[in-house]
Prior knowledge:
Elements: H1 3-31, H2 37-55, E1 58-61, E2 64-65, H3 66-75, H4 89-103, E3 111-118, E4 125-128, E5 139-147, E6 150-159
Antiparallel strand pairs: 1-2, 3-4, 3-6, 5-6
Amino acid sequence: MRKGQTEVLGFAMVMLLVSVGMLFIVGFIILREPSDIKRVFTDKQLAVNMNDALLSSTSGCKGIEFERLIIDCAQYQEILCDTSNTISSCSHIETAMRDIFTNTLEKWGKGYKYQIYFEGMDPMIHLNSGDGACNGDLEPGIFYLPTTKGTVFVRLDICE
């Protein structure tokens, strides 16, 4: 073989190896699983925004916002939410939140855990998604409400 032919053959082999390497790299990039960053960010924002919207929404209890009902539930439970004066603010919150989460988060396929509590104490209100399995990666939206008895934590966790 001539020297020129040997060089062309060597160049062709190098190009073949580079092409095969590029195929492996492109295949690896395309076939890898998508990043969880977007899901984590979306779930975190959903928890924060939903909790914020709920706190400032009218509850259906005499036109009172949920934030005021939660404070009443944590302090005195003086607000009664029906005409016969038998449904306390805590009972109304629990029923209303369960309905809201059933018609939103559960329909969207999102698991959740919702709690209203004083730090270091058992929750006054505790709701879970339908199957109750909300373990692992939780993306919390936490709000703090001052009361005469201390700070009440309103926490909504979104999970997959």
